[in-house]
Amino acid sequence: MPAYVIVETDIHDPEQYELYKQAAPAAVAAGGGRFVVRGGELAVLEGDWQPKRLVLLEFPDLEAAKRFYESPEYQAAKRLREGAAGFHMVAVEGVVE
After folding, report:
1. pLDDT by residue for the chain (97 residues), tens digit each?
2. Count of domains in the chain?
3. 35 close to 27: Cβ distance less than 8 angstroms
4. N or C: which end of the chain has fewer CB within 10 A?
């Protein structure tokens, strides 16, 4: 069953965040994931949620998503964004059609 990592980002230091943006794709790919959404225009359809930037990653399953997050590759990339952006991140199982 596929799983998705949903990330809400609030970038405070675009220059430093760029280092993370360059390193993260290799960590995602190494974890068996792919980008589905990476920023872009968004429209709030309901509620009071005002995200600045959203990212959606797809993984083969929830365990793969967790392994990606805990991997040395991602943890190294994550250190590059410390102080540059605020993050909220969750992993959720998808549906099988």
Report:
1. 999 999 999 999 999 999 999 999 999 999 999 999 999 899 999 999 999 999 999 999 999 999 999 999 999 999 999 999 999 999 999 998 7
2. 1
3. no
4. C
CB atoms under 10 Å from CB of 32, counted, come to: 14
Contact 56, 90 (CB under 8 A): no
Please state, in angstroms and rounded to a whole number, the distance separating the CA atoms of residues 88 and 65. 15
Helix and strand numbers, DSSP H then E, in the chain? 3, 4
- Can you give the CATH number for the domain in which 16 is found? 3.30.70.100
The C-alpha atoms of residue 92 and residue 62 are separated, in whole angstroms, by: 7
Q: Which domain holds residue 45?
A: 3-93
- Give the total residue count for the chain: 97
